[in-house]
Specification:
About 40% of the residues lie in helices and about 10% in strands. It is an alpha/beta fold. A five-stranded parallel sheet has the order 2-1-3-4-5, sandwiched between helices. Strand 4, helix 7 and strand 5 form a beta-alpha-beta unit. Helix 6 packs parallel to helix 7.
Amino acid sequence: MPSTLTESTDPYCLRPGEAAELLHGHPWRRFVALGDSVVEGMCEPTPGYPDVQWVDRVAAELTAVRPELAYRNLGRRGLRAHQVRATQLAPALAFAPDLALVVCGGNDAFHPAYDAVAVDAELTAMITALRDVGADVITVGMFDVSHSPAVPEHLRAGLAERMRRLSAHTAVLAERLGTIHVHLTDHPLTADPTLYSTDGRHGSARSDAIATAETLRTLSPSRPGPRPVTGDQEVSVTEPGVS
C-alpha cells in the first residue's frame, strides 16, 4: 500500500531548518562520493518527496551552510567493489577531498558467490587511502533491499543474509578504520515496502529522504566523532550466523 505521508509529515525525515542546525559550523570544503548506483542515484519517484537523490542532497545541504564547498560524484551503476576502487579511487584522491563517502559491495552481495573478505579488502584500500590524505570518510550500512516486494520470494532469504553480512562487515571496518558510519540496515522502516523501487534493487525517493536525514544527523559537528582503532587489526564479526 503506498504511503500517504509526504516529506513534511514523515516523522523520519528532516524538519524545516533541521539540516542547517545539524551542519552549522561544519568544517568540510571538498566532498567526493565513490560507489555504485546507490551513489550515482537511482531512486524511484515517490509522491510527496523530492526527486533529488540522497548523495546530491547531502552535498546540497553541506553547500547551503558552506557555499564554497566543491562536490564531485563519481558513482556509476552496476559496479562491484573492485571496479569502484579501480576506476574511482585515483580521481577521488586527485580531487583532494576533506570529506569522502564510499558505498559499494551491494552488487557483489546480489550474487550467491558474494566474497565478503574480498569486498572488505576493497573497502579497506579505499578508506585507508582517503584517510591517509586527510579526508573524513563516510561509510554506510544500507537498507536491507531483500524486503522489496519486487524480490522473488525464493531469493529473499539468501539475499537478506548477504546484505546483512555486507552491512555487518562494513560496520566492523568503520569501527576499525575510524569512519563516520551511517547505519540504515536496522532502521525502523527497513522492512517497509515504500522504501524500495519496483526493480527490486534500489530505493524510492522516500528512502533517499530518510537516508539524507540519517546521514546529516550522523555528520553533525555536535555529535561525538568516530572512534578510530589503531594498529593492524583483522576484521572479525561476532554475530551468530555472520561471517
